[in-house]
Design goal:
The complex is a heterodimer of chains A (492) and B (448). Chain A has 492 residues and is of the alpha/beta class. Chain A contains 15 helices and 13 strands. Chain A has two domains: 256 residues, Type I PLP-dependent aspartate aminotransferase-like (Major domain) (Aspartate Aminotransferase, domain 2), CATH 3.40.640; 123 residues, Aspartate Aminotransferase, domain 1 (Alpha-Beta Complex). The longest helix of chain B is centred in the C-terminal third of the chain and has 38 residues. Classes of the chains: A alpha/beta (492), B alpha/beta (448). Chains A and B meet through α2, α3, α4, α5 and α6 of A and α1, α2, α3, α4 and α5 of B.
Chain lengths: 492, 448
C-alpha cells in the first residue's frame, strides 16, 4: 500500500504567467490628490519608458490560490520532520514572528534618529551581550548578513590582526570535513586554504596539523562539534598548536546547538567564531534565507570588528559607535539583518539560560537515541557518543541502491531527506533537533528500518522513488545543459 | 518557555535504549575543564505573557517612521511604500516560512516555481535577459557584480561613475573587495550627476566595469545611455544599481543596454525593519549566466517528462567549487524573494505603473511647494524620480528637529557623507504621502 503524504498528486500547476487576464490586479491605488503634471515636460522624454514592463496581471483570488497551492507543494518544518544534518531544522516559534512584525520594529527606518530607535538599539545591545556570554568571547558584532558573510568577516578580522603586527599570513587550514563555504570564504579573503586530514574516528589528525601549520598560517577554521557529529576532545591541544605558530583559531558555529550552556568556545581557545541565527536560534530558514551571522572575537581582536557597533552610553541610552580606527569597515548596508535579530533575541529571551541548556541536552539526546535505534541495521562509522547529529551508512547489501535513493524514499514516508554524501561518501547525516517528539523520532527510525527491508525485497521501488510527489526526479543534466531560467511564451 | 516535547519518562526510555545512565554521559568528550559548572549568565527563561510584555516594551520605545503617528519622508535606499495586505498573508505561510533551501526538488516544487517566477519578474522589470534568485541586499549585489565583471573582462579597475551612489554601497564594496585584485576609482559628480567628460577621461582599456546608480543617491535620473556608450567603447561593462519602482516609468536597464542590473528590493513589499533583512536583486545578459553569483532556479523535465523546477548550474556554487569558488554566498534571501514575487504579482503591470506615477507626481508637487518657500531651494537642477536634495538656509539639524516635533520625518541630512553638503537633506515622497501631508511638511519647513 502506498504511504500517503500531504503533497497533492495534482497535475502540473500553471505558472503565474499562464494565468490572469489583461488589466487584472490585486492592488488598488488611490487617485492622485496632487495636480497633474506633464511628465515629459519636467524630464527629458528620452528618460521615460512609454510602456510599463509586461508584469503579471492577475486578480486577488487567483493570486491567493496560486501561492497557496505552491505552498502546498513544499515540505517544511511546520508540516514535516526535517532531519537535515548540519542545518538544525528546529521549530520556528510563532511568537518570534509576532515580535518582528510589531510596527515598532518592522516600520522603523534605518535613518531615524537614535532617540527614536532606543527599543531596537537596546534589544540589539542585549542580544550582543547574550551572544558574548554564550560564546565566552569578548565582543560580538551583529552586522553580517549570514553565516558565510560571518566567516568572511572573521577571516578579514584575522587578516587585519596579522597585518597590524607587520605580518602577512596567507594560508588558512580547514579540516577535510569542513563546510564548503569555509574554503570559498578563504578565497574571497585572498587566502589559500589547505586541507588538514581527519583520523578514522573523525577527529583532527594532529600530526597532519603539526606538519602543515607554520609562520604563514593565518588561522585554522574548525567546526566543533565537528561535521561528523563528534566533539573533538583534542580541542585544547589543537588551540595550543595553532597559537604556538601565532595563528588564530576560528570556530564555525554551525553546530552550536549541541553546546549551549555546555561549553563556551572562548574558554577552549577559540579566537573568532560566527553564529548562524537560523540554525541555533530558531529564525526561520524561509526557503533559503534570510539568515544572520553574528561574529564573536577574543579581546585582542576587538579593534578590528566592523563598524558601527551598538553601545550603551553612561546615561543609560543606546547608540551606534562608528569610532574604531582599525575596523575592517562595513560588511553590509545599514546595521545588519535587524528583523532576523529581533527573532533571535525573542528566542533567547524566552528560553533563558536554563532553556538553552535544555535545548542542547535534548538535541543531543534525540540524536543519540536515533543512532541507537538504527545501529543494528545501519553502520555508524564513527563511535558514539554523538553530539546533536550523526552519520550512518547502509551496512546491508544495498545492491545498486544508493544513499540518494534511500533519502528520496524517505520523502514517500513524509520525511524530508537527511543531508547526503557529505562529509564522507555514501553517508546520510541526521540531525533531529531538540523540538521533535519521541513518536516522531520513532516513526522516522521505523521508516529507515522499513526501507532497509525494502532494499532487499523491492529495490526498484526505492530506486524510482519518490512516488508521492508532484514530480519525480528531475533531469538535472538536461536542465543544466540548456538552462531555462525565465519564462517566455511558447518556450518550454 | 520550552519548545521541546520530550518528557522525563520519554528521556528515561531513550537513555535506556541508548544504554547510558544520564544525559551528561553524552558530554564526556567535552573535557572536564571546559564543561560549564553553572548556568550561563543570561536571564532565566520566561513565560509567553512575560515575553510579549518584554518585547512590547522594547517595541514601544521605538517611534517607527510608518504605521504610527509619524509621516515619513525618509529615503536614501529604504522607502515607506504600500504593499497589499494579501502579500503579507501569502508570504508568511507556514510552508514558505519554515522550508529549507530547495535542494530536494521533489519536495520543494512550490519554492522552486516561486523563485523561477521571481527570476522571470525581475528580468522583465529590469528589461534584462536573466536574473538570479537574489542576494543579501543592494550593496553586496553591487559588490558581487563588480567581482563578476572582473572575472568576465579579466581587468581590475572599477570606476564609480559618480559619488552619487549609496554611501553604504561604497563602504561595503571597499570592505568586500579589499582582499581581491579590484581597484575602485571614485569620480566626482557634477551638479549631482555623472560628469561625462571626467568619465571619458578616466575610461581606458584597463577598466573592467563602470558602476552607476540611477536614480542616484540624490534622486536624480542619470544619462545611463551615454555612460553605456562610453564604457562599451573601451570594452568595459556597465553595472547599474536601479530602483525597482522606477522601472515601471523610466527606461529600464535592459532598454539602456546595461550589462548587469542590480538593486535593492526593499520597495517590493518588504518592511523597512531598521535596514534589513532586505533583498539584493541581480540581473544580467544571458551570455554571462554561468558567471552569475547566487542561486539560480531552472525549469526542466522530470524522469517522466513532466515539467518541473530545480536548482540549476550548481557547479558555480561554493559547496561544489569550494576554494575555486568566485563567491562564498550560500543563502539567497529566500523569504524576501518570495515576498517580492508575491508583491510584484499582486501589484501587477498596472499597479506598479500607477505607483511609479504617483511617486513621480507627488515628489514633483512636494519639490515645487518647498522651493517656493523662503530659505529653501533644490540643490540640483537635474531630473528626478521620487527623491530630491533640498538646500536650506536654516541649520539642517534644527529644521529636522522642528519637523520631528510635529511628527514629520522630513529627510536624511547629507553632511554626514558628502563634503560641502551640511546645508542639505534628502527628501523622498512615496505614493503613500497625501497632499495634506506634503502641505503640512511645507508649513513645518516654513515655520522653522
Amino acid at each position: 500500500m502506498e504511504i500517503e503524504t500531504r503533497l497533492p498528486q495534482d497535475e502540473d500547476h500553471p505558472l503565474l504567467f499562464e494565468q490572469g487576464t489583461h488589466g487584472a490586479s490585486a492592488a488598488s491605488m488611490p487617485v492622485s490628490d496632487v495636480p497633474a503634471i506633464d511628465r515629459a515636460s519636467v524630464v527629458d522624454p528620452e528618460l521615460l519608458s512609454g510602456n510599463p514592463p509586461e508584469m503579471p496581471e492577475i486578480g486577488e483570488l487567483d493570486l491567493v490560490r496560486h501561492y497557496t497551492r505552491l505552498a502546498h507543494r513544499l515540505f517544511s518544518v511546520d508540516a514535516n520532520f526535517y532531519p537535515l544534518g548540519s542545518c538544525t531544522m528546529k521549530y520556528n516559534p510563532r511568537v518570534n514572528e509576532k515580535a518582528a512584525a510589531m510596527p515598532g520594529f518592522a516600520s522603523l527606518h534605518p535613518y531615524q534618529r537614535e532617540s527614536d530607535c532606543q527599543g531596537t538599539l537596546e534589544l540589539l545591545y542585549r542580544l550582543r551581550n547574550y551572544l558574548e556570554e554564550i560564546s565566552g568571547l569578548a565582543e560580538v558584532t551583529l552586522q553580517p548578513s549570514a553565516g558565510a558573510q560571518g566567516e568572511m568577516t572573521g577571516l578579514m578580522i584575522i587578516n587585519a590582526y596579522h597585518r597590524s603586527r607587520g605580518e602577512t599570513r596567507t594560508q588558512v587550514l580547514t579540516p577535510d570535513s569542513a563546510h564548503g563555504t569555509n574554503p570559498a570564504s578563504c578565497t574571497i579573503c585572498g587566502q589559500q586554504s589547505t586541507t588538514v586530514r581527519s583520523k578514522p574516528d573523525g577527529r583532527v589528525d594532529l600530526d597532519d596539523l603539526r606538519s602543515k601549520v607554520g609562520t604563514n598560517t593565518a588561522a585554522l577554521m574548525i567546526t566543533n562539534p565537528n561535521t561528523v557529529g563528534v566533539f573533538d576532545e583534542q580541542i585544547s591541544e589543537i588551540a595550543e598548536i595553532v597559537h604556538g605558530c601565532g595563528a588564530q583559531l576560528y570556530l564555525d558555529g554551525a553546530n552550536m546547538n549541541a553546546m549551549l550552556g555546555i561549553a563556551r568556545p572562548g574558554d577552549f581557545g577559540v579566537d573568532v567564531m560566527h553564529f548562524n541565527t537560523h540554525k541555533t536560534f530558531s529564525t526561520p530558514h524561509g526557503c533559503g534565507g534570510p539568515g544572520a551571522g553574528p561574529v564573536g572575537v577574543a579581546e585582542h581582536l576587538r579593534d578590528f570588528l566592523p563598524v558601527p557597533q551598538v553601545t550603551r552610553r553612561d546615561d543609560g541610552t543606546y547608540a551606534w559607535c562608528h569610532d574604531r580606527e582599525k575596523s575592517i569597515g562595513k560588511v553590509r548596508s545599514f546595521y545588519g539583518q535587524s528583523g532576523v535579530l529581533v527573532r533571535a533575541y525573542t528566542y533567547i529571551r524566552s528560553l533563558g539560560a536554563d532553556g538553552l541548556l535544555n535545548v542542547s541536552q535534548k538535541a543531543v539526546l534525540a540524536a543519540n537515541y536515533l543512532a541507537a535505534r538504527l545501529r543494528h541495521r545501519y553502520h555508524l562509522p564513527f563511535p558514539p557518543p554523538y553530539a546533536h547529529e550523526f552519520i550512518l551508512i547502509p551496512k546491508f547489501d544495498t545492491g545498486n541502491v544508493s544513499e540518494l535513493d534511500i533519502a528520496k524514499r524517505l520523502i514517500d514516508h513524509g520525511f524530508h531527506p537527511p543531508t547526503m554524501s557529505w562529509p564522507i561518501q555514501h553517508c546520510l547525516m541526521i540531525e533531529p533537533t531538540e523540538t521533535e517528539s519521541l513518536p516522531t523520532l520513532d516513526a522516522f527510525a521505523d521508516a529507515l528500518l522499513a526501507i532497509a527491508d525494502e532494499i532487499e525485497t523491492d529495490p526498484e521501488k526505492i530506486k524510482s522513488s519518490p512516488h508521492t510527489t508532484p514530480i519525480t526526479r528531475m533531469d538535472e543534466v538536461g536542465a543544466n545543459r540548456r538552462p531555462n531560467v525565465r519564462w517566455q511564451p511558447n518556450v518550454s | 518557555m520550552d519548545y521541546t516535547q520530550i518528557s522525563t519518562e520519554d528521556a528515561s526510555h531513550m537513555l535506556a535504549t541508548i544504554g547510558v545512565e544520564s544525559i551528561d554521559d553524552f558530554f564526556t568528550n567535552v573535557g572536564e575543564e571546559y564543561h560549564l559548572k553553572k548556568l550561563l549568565d543570561i536571564p532565566m527563561g520566561i513565560s509567553e505573557p512575560e515575553l510579549l510584555a518584554d518585547i512590547a516594551d522594547l517595541a514601544g520605545r521605538n517611534k517607527p517612521a510608518a504605521d504610527g503617528e509619524m509621516v515619513c519622508f525618509l529615503g536614501g535606499g529604504v522607502y515607506d511604500h504600500f504593499s497589499p495586505t494579501v502579500v503579507d498573508h501569502l508570504a508568511t505561510q507556514s510552508e514558505f516560512l519554515t522550508a529549507y533551501t530547495p535542494y530536494q526538488a521533489e519536495a520543494s516544487q512550490g519554492a522552486l516555481q516561486a523563485f523561477y517566477e521571481y527570476q522571470t519578474m525581475i528580468s522583465t522589470l529590469t528589461g534584462m535577459e536573466v536574473a538570479n534568485a537574489s542576494l543579501y541586499e543592494q550593496a553586496s549585489a553591487v559588490a558581487e557584480a563588480v567581482l563578476m565583471a572582473g572575472a568576465i573582462t579579466k581587468r581590475n579597475k572599477v570606476l564609480f561613475a559618480s559619488e552619487a551612489v549609496h554611501p553604504d554601497t561604497r563602504q561595503v564594496i571597499r570592505t568586500l573587495t579589499y582582499e581581491q585584485p579590484v581597484e575602485p576609482i571614485r569620480l566626482p559628480a557634477r551638479d549631482g550627476l555623472v560628469d561625462l567628460d571626467a568619465l571619458a577621461d578616466a575610461l581606458d582599456e584597463t577598466v573592467a566595469s563602470v558602476v552607476i546608480q540611477s536614480p542616484n543617491f540624490f534622486g536624480l535620473i542619470e544619462r545611463v545611455a551615454d555612460v553605456v556608450k562610453l564604457a562599451h567603447d573601451v570594452g568595459a561593462l556597465v553595472i547599474q544599481s536601479v530602483d525597482p519602482i522606477s522601472c515601471s516609468l523610466l527606461k529600464r536597464p535592459g532598454q539602456l543596454d546595461v550589462d548587469i542590473a542590480v538593486g535593492e528590493g526593499q520597495s517590493l513589499g518588504i518592511p523597512m525593519s531598521y535596514g534589513g533583512p532586505f533583498l539584493g536583486f541581480f540581473a544580467c545578459r544571458e551570455k554571462y549566466l554561468r558567471k552569475m553569483p547566487g542561486r539560480i532556479v531552472g525549469m526542466g523535465k522530470d524522469a517522466n517528462g513532466k515539467r518541473g523546477f530545480c536548482l540549476a548550474l550548481q557547479t558555480r556554487e561554493q559547496h561544489i567549487k569550494r576554494e575555486r569558488a568566485t563567491s562564498n554566498v550560500c543563502t539567497n534571501q529566500g523569504l524576501l524573494a518570495l515576498r517580492a514575487a508575491v508583491h510584484m504579482a499582486a501589484m501587477g503591470r498596472t499597479g506598479l505603473r500607477k505607483q511609479a506615477e504617483l511617486c513621480f507626481d507627488k515628489a514633483h508637487y512636494a519639490a515645487n511647494r518647498i522651493q517656493s518657500l523662503d530659505g529653501y531651494e533644490l540643490k540640483f537642477d537635474g531630473p528626478f524620480f521620487r527623491e530630491f536634495v533640498v538646500q536650506a538656509k536654516h541649520n539642517v539639524g534644527k529644521l529636522l528637529d522642528h519637523c520631528r516635533s510635529r511628527n514629520i520625518l522630513a529627510g536624511v541630512p547629507l553632511g554626514q557623507w558628502f563634503d560641502g553638503m551640511d546645508d542639505c537633506f534628502l527628501l523622498a515622497v512615496t505614493e503613500k504621502r497625501t497632499k495634506d501631508e506634503i502641505d503640512a511638511l511645507a508649513e513645518a519647513l516654513e515655520t522653522v
